[in-house]
Q: What sequence folds into this?
């Protein structure tokens, strides 16, 4: 059996937006891999990059453990890893060089290395795992430690006599219950708990119930799990929840599935088992507007503790939604917001500006949608071309050397759109300002109707509306100075 140091390439300190928000979750995909490796009898040590100060901090572990292998296994459930942020790529390169200087064999599994395996092989990586990685990694290590023939392994890329060998991806796993639970024993719970309590006052942890997504939004990449949708059984999920809540004191769960609870029957059974187990917690999920039109699903979410649903609204223009191949309508966005509100569940909107063909009329439609529905939270980005997508193929001729953001707050348009780059930065600021302004006005109205319900949050929101009003006017005026490029 092999001696392995396992890590990942996402460093919170290299992503200022996420660091400020305190969105620090353990590397779920990484500890799934750790669990599989430990079950196979390997000796595994974890260097958790999430809370590390810099990539060189791995060096003491490489020296003390003296491993045969360094495995950089990114958390494919963290959507930021799909974006292949250059800060994280460079951090991975640093760890690769440190390991190779000590004669350690390096294996990597990530969205970026799957899409650009030659770049990683050029940096000295010995093996790149393509796509879903646990079984491929297990097979690779078994073969290497037993002296078997690596040419027989599906799902890897490597160099042989200076030639790149691409063995292609293997089919994704279907029965997720056969996987051992993540190696939670390797995580420093105290460090994560301290950070969450400081930022939010509660302790949140990440879990996943499914892999993959069957929908075909043409800007969304699926380099790891593909278009199949496979789910753990509700009982399997509840068993893990019971451990995390009862043994580790977790109060809140971020279910980081691309689509949580696609099947109403799964949700209903999940809600029943949560109640039966007496579990008390809140959770947030990602879903779609059309799925939230099912009354039984909303009821099951509410009964099982769902606090917030992040909906991929993206745009208030049906023209843009259709161009994205979202497969939803504006009416569904409006109605799902109302259904979730009636069910006592907060709605958060993902919004995306800058999709090819978007003009000012479409932008105004998105602003109108937000102000009419007033979701409880909004997250704003600009269109980001990911390799392997239809969108990427549409704009790749315009992409220069810069095809990745350095961190998630960069918000750079990497292809030419209707307006110049600075417009989209200002648009994001304006959108947040007018949203908060209306939030404040709603708070004032509520306080006038319910004077005995005063609390610091409502008062602060109401007072901030006085600040946002003039700021919104200034930002709108600045937006109007930008002229279309085409």
A:
């Amino acid at each position: 059996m092999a001696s392995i140091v396992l890590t990942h390439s996402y460093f919170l300190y290299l992503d200022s937006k996420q660091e400020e928000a305190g969105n620090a979750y353990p590397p779920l995909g990484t500890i799934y891999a750790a669990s599989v490796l430990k079950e196979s009898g390997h000796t595994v040590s974890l260097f958790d990059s999430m809370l590390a100060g810099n990539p060189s901090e791995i060096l003491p572990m490489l020296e003390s453990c003296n491993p045969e292998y360094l495995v950089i296994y990114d958390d494919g459930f963290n959507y930021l890893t799909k974006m292949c942020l250059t800060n994280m790529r460079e951090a991975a390169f640093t760890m690769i060089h440190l390991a190779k200087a000590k004669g350690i064999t390096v294996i990597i599994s990530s969205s970026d290395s799957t899409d650009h395996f030659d770049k990683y092989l050029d940096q000295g990586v010995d093996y790149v795992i393509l796509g879903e990685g646990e079984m491929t990694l297990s097979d690779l290590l078994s073969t290497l430690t037993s002296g078997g023939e690596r040419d027989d392994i599906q799902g890897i890329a490597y160099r042989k006599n200076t030639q790149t060998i691409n063995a292609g991806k293997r089919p994704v796993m279907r029965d997720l219950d056969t996987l051992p639970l993540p190696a939670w024993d390797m995580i420093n719970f105290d460090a994560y708990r301290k950070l969450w309590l400081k930022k939010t006052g509660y302790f949140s942890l990440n879990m996943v119930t499914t892999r993959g997504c069957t929908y075909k939004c043409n800007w969304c990449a699926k380099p790891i799990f593909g278009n199949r949708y496979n789910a753990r059984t509700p009982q399997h999920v509840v068993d893990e929840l019971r451990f995390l809540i009862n043994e580790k004191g977790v109060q809140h769960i971020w279910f980081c599935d691309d689509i949580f609870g696609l099947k109403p029957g799964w949700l209903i059974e999940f809600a029943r088992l949560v109640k039966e187990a007496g579990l008390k917690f809140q959770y947030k999920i990602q879903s779609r507007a059309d799925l939230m039109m099912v009354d039984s699903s909303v009821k099951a979410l509410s009964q099982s503790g769902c606090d917030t649903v992040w909906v991929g609204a993206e745009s208030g223009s049906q023209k843009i939604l259709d161009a994205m191949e979202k497969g939803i309508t504006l009416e569904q966005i409006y109605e799902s917001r109302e259904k979730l509100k009636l069910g006592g569940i907060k709605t958060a909107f993902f919004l995306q500006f800058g999709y090819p063909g978007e003009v000012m009329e479409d932008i105004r439609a998105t602003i109108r949608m937000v102000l009419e529905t007033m979701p409880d939270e909004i997250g704003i980005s600009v269109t980001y071309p990911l390799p392997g997508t239809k969108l990427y193929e549409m704009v790749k001729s315009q992409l220069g050397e810069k095809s990745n953001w350095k961190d998630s707050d960069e918000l750079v348009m990497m292809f030419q759109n209707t307006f110049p780059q600075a417009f989209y930065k200002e648009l994001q600021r304006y959108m947040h300002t007018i949203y908060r302004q209306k939030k404040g006005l709603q708070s004032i109205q509520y306080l006038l109707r319910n004077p005995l319900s005063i609390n610091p949050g409502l008062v602060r929101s109401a007072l901030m509306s006085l600040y946002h009003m003039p700021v919104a006017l200034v930002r709108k005026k600045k937006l109007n100075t930008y002229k279309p490029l085409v």
